[in-house]
Amino acid sequence: MNDLRQLRHFVAVAEHGHFARAAAAVHLSQPALSRSIQALEAGLGCRLFDRGTRHVVLTAHGQLVLEHARRLLAGSRSLQNAVNQLGNLEAGELCLGAGPFPAARLVPRALARLARRYPKIHVQLVIEDWRSLRRRLLGEGIELFVAESRELLDDPLLAVEPLRPRPGLYFCRPGHPLLEVGRLSRDAIADYPLAGPQLPDEVVDQVRKLSGREQLPDIQCDNFMVLKDLVQHSDVLGLATSDVVAESVADGSLAVLPPVPDIPNRNSAYGLVSRAGHSLSPAAQALRALVLREDEELSA
């Protein structure tokens, strides 16, 4: 059985594409790293790298081993993390993900509560769309995530805990020309670019039929702070859920457009997502409880 240390050395070489740089990264001499890789290749009975004068390239066997090595190393970290946390949330780490809108308000507030209770937990937060977060979750790069979940509900590999829906809306800068229009229409909205994160397919299809746009949104970005700044300094319209713009609307830095009769404002479908059949670490369980509490309070 090849030990995890050899797998760590192998992953370092694969990621750096160079023995010298990988050796520096894992704090080994280059000859020692080479011997570790050779021992791994001997144990597996295959060549993992094609070695060139300037860099190394994974073989087909190497590609396969890399996929499994990353999964094994992630599992090892998860095991150690769970053991460290058992009955003691003063140690360990939590790797989680969030979609653009939950990351703008719900998740930071839950994390703030977690940090106040357990200030020594190391937290890594990844902000991406729900499809990318699913890949990370199944690859054991994160333990759970909060994101759009309507396309994940029937996935047998996932456990999805739906959160309360938030109304979807269009937002704009104060003084936007559309705020002066008495009754908004589909044609009026279509005159301005629409910015937002990646949208679920059913939402895209419905809005496309009603708006006549081929691609939605016109400007796609998964960073809500960037979207907010873009909308505040242009006539671009933003697409969001009510919770993430509430404070900005209250302080007057953003405005909300009234509903458009022929373009429905769809509700969000946030969910807490983890791997089916896998128990959460104590830190992840604590965060889950805080997300549910924050979700209830924000909805109220």
TrEMBL record:
Keywords: DNA-binding, Transcription, Transcription regulation. Residues 1-59 form the HTH lysR-type domain. The keyword Transcription regulation applies. One of its GO terms (cellular component) is cytosol. One of its GO terms (molecular function) is DNA-binding transcription factor activity. It comes from the Bacteria. InterPro entries: HTH-type_LysR_regulators, LysR_HTH_N, LysR_subst-bd, WH-like_DNA-bd_sf, WH_DNA-bd_sf. Belongs to the LysR transcriptional regulatory family. PANTHER family: HTH-TYPE TRANSCRIPTIONAL REGULATOR YBHD, LYSR FAMILY TRANSCRIPTIONAL REGULATOR. This is HTH-type transcriptional regulator HdfR. The lineage of its organism: Bacteria, Pseudomonadati, Pseudomonadota, Gammaproteobacteria, Pseudomonadales.
